[in-house]
């Protein structure tokens, strides 16, 4: 199908982004004669499913959210696979469609990387984009690991036969813009790593009322934000030298240190570096879910997860 391939290559060059975590994000899908796919929902919220009819016997139908549509040769159907959907081919001939799984317009590479981690930590994130990494303390100091094989409650498997204790490792994500900023309740100092016994960073202490816009966050096993970090370095430089991050915990021995604010103040800046509070607690930051269109090609409402304490 050279013409189809050229058309797809042109679409990719023009900005079409296929779902990199799908095993079958582009190809010809065959549905056997006399077959039926029972109603189900696909778990992914990152992409749509699109069908271009190629060889379609009359009578084949796709039903999404209770609404049925017929495939027709040369016609295009797009739908949200997170809605209940089913398919049937009651005819005596096979049905063929070109299937595509394009990413939704508002899904960023960082979103794909986050899902890749939770689906399979060994999955490589999109190239040339900031993605999660582990900060691990060892005898040779603090190191960042952008790839790993797996993790559980006790260990992180960095490579075959090489593990790090979970208590000496912190999972770090680039901070999404929707996270907003944080205002200091009281004076504090910055830490060189997201651990309560970490050395202090050099620089001026944090002052009560300072507003900080984080560049990175360290999360717990449930995805809740424990620490925020600032840096004047880009992601690749941070991986080479994680000492370029300065950290603050959301809570310390005296209670909450930082309050989340929706807007980043004009004077918000990575206040000069220094040490963190001496005890640990956890707060999960708010996050916005990607909007999901209702059924076939419609617009959907944006959902928000509430802050958990």
From TrEMBL:
Alphabetic keyword roster: Dioxygenase, Oxidoreductase
UniProt keyword NADP present: no
Superkingdom in the source lineage: Eukaryota
Residue span(s) of domain Aspartyl/asparaginy/proline hydroxylase: 20-101
Protein name: Peptide-aspartate beta-dioxygenase
Cited InterPro entries: Asp/Arg/Pro-Hydrxlase, Asp/Asn_beta-hydroxylase, IPNS-like_sf
UniProt family annotation: Belongs to the aspartyl/asparaginyl beta-hydroxylase family.
Keyword hit for Lipid metabolism: no
Region Disordered: start-end pairs: 267-309
N-terminal signal peptide: none
Biased amino acid composition, Basic and acidic residues: 270-287
